[in-house]
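Hello again,

I reread your note about wanting to compare the complex against the isolated chains. To keep things tidy I'm splitting this into two emails, and this first one only covers the full assembly. Below are the input lines as submitted, including protein chains and any nucleic acid or small-molecule components. They are followed by the predicted structure of everything together. The single-chain runs will come separately.
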Amino acid sequence: MTDLSHVDGLLTPRSVAVIGASEDVTRIGGRPIAAMLKAGYKGRILPVNPKRETVQGLPCYADIDALPVAPDAALIAVPAKLVPETIVALGRKGCKAATLFSAGFAETGEEGEAAQRELVALAKSCGMRLLGPNTLGVYNVDIGYYGTFSSSLDTGYPLPGNIGIASQSGAFGAHLGALARDRGLGSSILMTTGNEADITVADAIRWMAQSDGIDVICTYMEAVNDAPALLDALDAARAAGKPVIALKSGRSIVGAQAAASHTASLTGDAVVADAVLRAHGAIIVRDSEAMMDIAYVASKKIFPTRDTFGVITVSGGAGIVISDEAERIGFAMPPMPTEAQTRLKAVLPYGSPVNPLDCTAQALNDPSLLEKFTRAALEEGGYGAVLCFFTYVAGSPAMSDIILKAVKPLREAYPDRIIAFCALGEPEVLKEYDDQGILIFNDPCRAARAIHAICGFRQAAPRTIPSAPPVTLPDTTPDEAGAKQILAGCGIACAPELAVQTVEEAVAAAETFGYPVVMKILSPDILHKSDIGAVKLDLGDADAVRAAYTDIGAAVAKHAPDAKVSGMLVAKQLSGGVECLMGINRDPAFGPVAVFGLGGIFVELLNDVAVQACPFDAESAREMILSIRGASILKGARGQSAVDIDALAQMLSQLSMFAAGAGDRLVSVDLNPVLALAEGAYALDAVIEMEDR
Amino acid sequence: MTDLSHVDGLLTPRSVAVIGASEDVTRIGGRPIAAMLKAGYKGRILPVNPKRETVQGLPCYADIDALPVAPDAALIAVPAKLVPETIVALGRKGCKAATLFSAGFAETGEEGEAAQRELVALAKSCGMRLLGPNTLGVYNVDIGYYGTFSSSLDTGYPLPGNIGIASQSGAFGAHLGALARDRGLGSSILMTTGNEADITVADAIRWMAQSDGIDVICTYMEAVNDAPALLDALDAARAAGKPVIALKSGRSIVGAQAAASHTASLTGDAVVADAVLRAHGAIIVRDSEAMMDIAYVASKKIFPTRDTFGVITVSGGAGIVISDEAERIGFAMPPMPTEAQTRLKAVLPYGSPVNPLDCTAQALNDPSLLEKFTRAALEEGGYGAVLCFFTYVAGSPAMSDIILKAVKPLREAYPDRIIAFCALGEPEVLKEYDDQGILIFNDPCRAARAIHAICGFRQAAPRTIPSAPPVTLPDTTPDEAGAKQILAGCGIACAPELAVQTVEEAVAAAETFGYPVVMKILSPDILHKSDIGAVKLDLGDADAVRAAYTDIGAAVAKHAPDAKVSGMLVAKQLSGGVECLMGINRDPAFGPVAVFGLGGIFVELLNDVAVQACPFDAESAREMILSIRGASILKGARGQSAVDIDALAQMLSQLSMFAAGAGDRLVSVDLNPVLALAEGAYALDAVIEMEDR
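Full-complex prediction:
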């Protein structure tokens, strides 16, 4: 088990020192104390303030050295310039973890960033870990610990419960906490990480993955500051069977350098982050409401093994609306078995027994229909989740007791299925269902989306990450032949080709391959060869090869007179198949990232690419390839024959292994086009950019 | 003003007869009476039941003839078999509009449908209009009229207010009503139309468009049963400045007949309905929650002229999340003017003055920042709508008075702008903002979506529908040359071409056009010519023309020996440009519908088409063309030159006029491909299918 004692100190302290403690309950140094007193913090609050004898009725200490014990946690609410000496004193006292509310560091510019770096180094030398700076702090409802100055508490305290929140942004994290509370959801832990100078959301996720009290983890990130730790934390959460619901904001481009290369311009870092986090089992959302909806479903700790959806309604109209939404999000709604349909048709001739199952308004006269149809959906339909659109019928005081009684045995009989109601009515009436483990939504489409996310949770098998053997790169960026040679060494197939130095060598090579052939200039200085006429296709005989040799030479002499030329490349011209592209770019957070797409409009207009952090195995590569919108083209849409997706997947995985093994000097790889044939896949062009040694 | 006296009778009756009145308040004949008594209906309730002297304390009449007055409305709650005599009696008494709760008609099959048709005819002969059958009825909160047996009232009564609901589905309509109520939204009118044997949602929308009390119209439809009336109603609502928020469910295919043709398989009728309703100003949603969100925004009756979005936050994180969502939905967030940025930067150095504007947590210490930033967004930013992410800060009792006082003058100073808060806290605190005209949401992304819908409302200019002159179709389906001749007569350009009868005529035609040319068989019996080798491209000289003539003849003799052949078509081969397709299909609700798409994968894999009901002008055609995802290809993406979109739009509009003028015998038109060139656009193939006379 990973050592998370520093997070223990932050989240479950037996004692907390408040440095800069204030009598004023609206000040940063006063709010946490007031909150803890009000919430009945089970530990010891140790105010530190040289100017006071007591603070909010508690004995106050003049300085850190005067504290009676080494505090488990320390809240630092002093001006930035006093922070270093505070840290030294805390370290001397034996404190292991401090929360740094103080702002005025990295968020203010370069100078602040330097100060922040020094602070972390200082803390490290004192044996301490830091949360923040510029953090709103943490809370742990279960022990009444409020190491936070969030004014969200002015609108009420969070409810205890099995949802944990880890947020980089303080205010957005507190918003999530308040949102949970206003919905009646229990979230015992909030940890906001601010500037993440040291401790990141990854630590919080890791801690919650190990915590007995937390079953669902919500996280908000703007930047991924420690990718390996984050992925490790996600893996730990998944291994513990706890869904992580993640919102990564920001759609900026991977980075100026990477953006210059073709494929990079298609891959915003949020897209990369989403792909990587998803591969590690995270459920990706883009707003706080969807996050809370999914957390609510997950909080019941039912993760069906089947990702199928049964819908029971008292309104045919609602059934259609829900089916429309289910289809849109890809939530399968298989029909009821035929025998069950026949049986239900006999029970209610004008209802619909298929899926959605419609009990019609007849259910008002005969409430047993609600139970019969719901039971049938669970028993005979076998759906992983059922949504009962009972709206105001379920909320009606006259009906709710009957329905509650009817649904209770179902809840018990199918402990592994999600049962949700779309219900309207007084909150107290609806709460009775919720208390029985029936999920309550007032919008059926929102319910469908949240339930779908959780039904898919167990299905997402952990990804096996292969180990990538180190690759030795040449000292400088190679030319195309050199690039292909390197890739061939890693198992990436190129079209048969030969580098030649004379026109007769070119003809000889062509004769060996058989016509038609392709010829291109070989030069590490010319990256976009066809733009200057240094590529000739469809050369059908020796004369054509000779003419092309001359023409390419002339074109290079004219357009790139200073380019270093190492000869020409003669390659067998492959035809047919489907043109794809594969590439590697460096993501500032996740390192080398592979991109796959079809050529042409799919990439250029539709941005239809899949991305994944390197390395990954062929199975993951296959998933990536099949995830693009145009994948049906590879499977043989439009009357052409299917291509060798296995070969493509193999190549993409090999490319990812190469990138992971190549280290930091690798800037980018561009295999464009890669020709996928009925059998095999070949890189027809290859550019490897690297930093010169 | 359209005569809507029958809807007046249904929605604002001074008296209502309840036929089949019941003492039992849970019965269909008892519920409405109980509801009206409870709500204090301002009119006269006239129970009719031969078996009782009184019903629920009211004097009861033995039969309709015994009623003291001709009732404005009648609620029919008797078994299906007694309905005809009831209608006759009501007509005799002078009643003009009856609500038919009784089920057992069209929804039960053919027999019921016939009975329903007879009922409408009977009612008509008695001078009456019918709501239903199989309807849940109507309510009008303002006069306490509850002509409904909906059990939604068991969970509480709707609140009075300016939102009206017209729903085909009874239960879904009542769900919408209950949803509005649970959110605290006032919706005075609900009308559910059930089987729509006579009165449809169009009547309800039309009535609400004229009603003083209703400013926002929500409508739910499964089928469009009277398209002209619906479009007329939408136009009336738009003319009255009232948004119609429409949910049309169901994704079924246009119809079996149309599905057989190529383009039809791409056009589900919900897609057609969405396009047509949108063209008539409706705001299209796909779930009840989005409907209520938008209705809430619209209920404040502020429709900004600028469709721009300013965001003010106390959390940088939330600002990013909101910006991500705004970009996704296409809600423009232009930056603040430079001078304003400079000024705000001076006020708050570590905030962000761009857009989103971030006041940071500093706003807690200095609440005036909230006002300053919000005012700047309205005054200097000039945004049509501002969203203030103040979360629990706005909900905090300590802050809410200060914020309320600060925002009030802004609300008054900018009456034409939407001001919304994302706020969390106690409902009573939040309601104070709402009472001041500040919209309150708890999720900022939902707020952005709803506000965007309303900001776009005023921008949607009414569509001018051109009048389509009648077109005379030939008696039978024409061959390609005939089809093109008909289209040419309507101004649709085809490639220069000539029908020929001999090989030498073919050569002569080719010489006239200049090579290369295309040759095809001319036969009304062969629709897919290239499949059988009856099309030859790239014919470069006279010999090639002669060979093609022979080959096509042989191919037809072999594969379609029975086809009626009228010669061959020689056409100039156009090249370059972009291949598009245009088509016409018949929609069961809206008649001829035009489809536009790019050729190839855009249509076949991506379903990237635009549809619109015919006829429409070139401006609407242009909008359609530019609305497809691949439109940038037409504008010159991927390094090729832009094509003549005006010519395409002209052609598409002409095609729509042709289709509208051609009448019911026209089954479909398929122009595939249409070649769009840098100048001009030409149909290279044309198939017109029609019913033989």
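For quick reference: The radius of gyration of chain A is 31 Å.

B.
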